Every structure is written in C-alpha cells, then in structure tokens.
Write the structure tokens for this entry.
Amino acid sequence: MACLEVVRTGLFTTVQDRGRPGYASVGVGESGAADRFAHDCANRLVGNQSGAATLEVVLGGLAVRAAGTVSVAVTGARTPVTVNSESCADYTMLHLNSGDLLELGYTSVGLRSYLSIRGGFDVPAVMGSRSTDTLSWIGPDPVAAGDRLPVGAETDSWPADELVPPPATPEDPLMMHARPGPRDDWFTAASVAALFRETWTVSADTNRVGAKLEGPGALHRSVTDEMPSEAMVAGSLQVPPNGRPILFLADHPVTGGYPVIAVVAEDDLPAAAQLRPGHRVRFHREVASKIPR
C-alpha cells in the first residue's frame, strides 16, 4: 500500500478533515481543518471527496518521502515547494514516484498550509473523523518524524484542471464581517463601538483553539454578574475579564463562561485561520439583526 513517510514535521503538523459535527451535546467540538477553503481546494486538486483527510502544516517545514506512486497538492499559506530539491508550484497537482522527497519551506505570509494526497490519509477515525482536536486531544496524535501515513480510498473523479489560482495576499489590516451579540448588551455602548472602530492585532498567543487579540484598550462590561456557561461557535469573539477579545477557531470549546460580544461571519473564518501573530484585523459591523441568544 502506498504511503508517505514523514522525514520532518516542521513546527506542528496534524491530520485534519472536515471535522466531527453533531457531538456538542456530549462536550465534543467539531474541530476539522482551520482553513476549510484551503483544505477543500487541496482535495479538489487531487480528485478527492471533500471529507478526505489532509495534513495541516503550521508555518511550513514539512518533509515527506513517497513510498509508492502518489499524487499530491499543497494549498493554504504560500510556501516554497520542492521535489528532490527542485522547485515546484503550490496550488497544482504534483505526481511523486516512489522515493521522491517533497519538502515545504517556511511561510512568509499566512499560517497554515495543507497537503492532500489522492485517496486521503487513512489514519484511524475517532467519532467519525480523522481530525486532531488540540483542545480535547480527540483524534490521531500530531504527526511525528518516522510516521508512515497510508493512502486511503476517498477519491472522486479527476479534476478538469490541474491547477487553480492561489488566493490574494491577505490585506493588513484584514477586514472581517461580524454581527453583534449574543451578549453585546453586557458591554458598555462605548466598548461595542470600539470593537468595530479600532484596529486589533493578533497576539503571539494564537493556536487552533483561538487567536487572542490586542488593541488600544480593553472592552468594558456594563453587566458584571457571573454568566452561566453558554454554547460557543467558531467565530465567536469572547471577552474574558482582561477585556481582550479572543477569536475562537476550529478547536474552540463547546461552551464558555465569558460573554460573546460578536460573532465573525462563517465566510471569513478561512482568512481568520491564516492570521499569524502581528497581523492586524478590523471588524465590519453587519447590518443584519444581532446574533440571537
């Protein structure tokens, strides 16, 4: 059976698919690829079903050797790609012969790259998903040097094109759309206005759970009562007692005890997953009705 042998993992590499929805009632989050768009694009390029597992690589640095003839693609954060030390393109399908060494350089823009293989990575599924949840540690262990990742059979028809245009470099500051609520009324009017007026910066404390944001000042609550735990979704902007918002990402907790001042639009989450420390963001207030409780 064909597989990829892991030579070097880079900073942090995990197996991810489209997650395990439907288990929030038992305390298990959805998880899955942080940048769903890049994950889906990688699968399309090699003719996989969208649920096939890919490798999510933080900041690049991954090196794998083909054991058998395989077809792969690299998407997400732009990273130099080489096969046997020869430069190759990302966002296109690559064909590897047995023994070929594929290496990802280190990213200069963006945070997470995705490596797909035709058939997907056939690691054991947990609760219907091959995703690694870094909050609960459900799913496979992070990828380690020496691992042999077998190829699965989650294929679809071959794509009509062997390359797609890569996305534009994200703007700085990046504008994201957000709807107020469900607990914006727990904050002063000035703080709600500041959330949408000010420019925020992604701190060094960012991971698959969420990105902590720093700004010119703290967001202040008008209601200081203790709040019972409430359901959380990806894109929630939760504000802990220090007044600095946290943008929840793929491995966010199922519930939380701090108020959510606003929720980022689902379409903007792939871009949010690519924010690296130091990148600036702003929030555009959507005119639709606020998020219901």
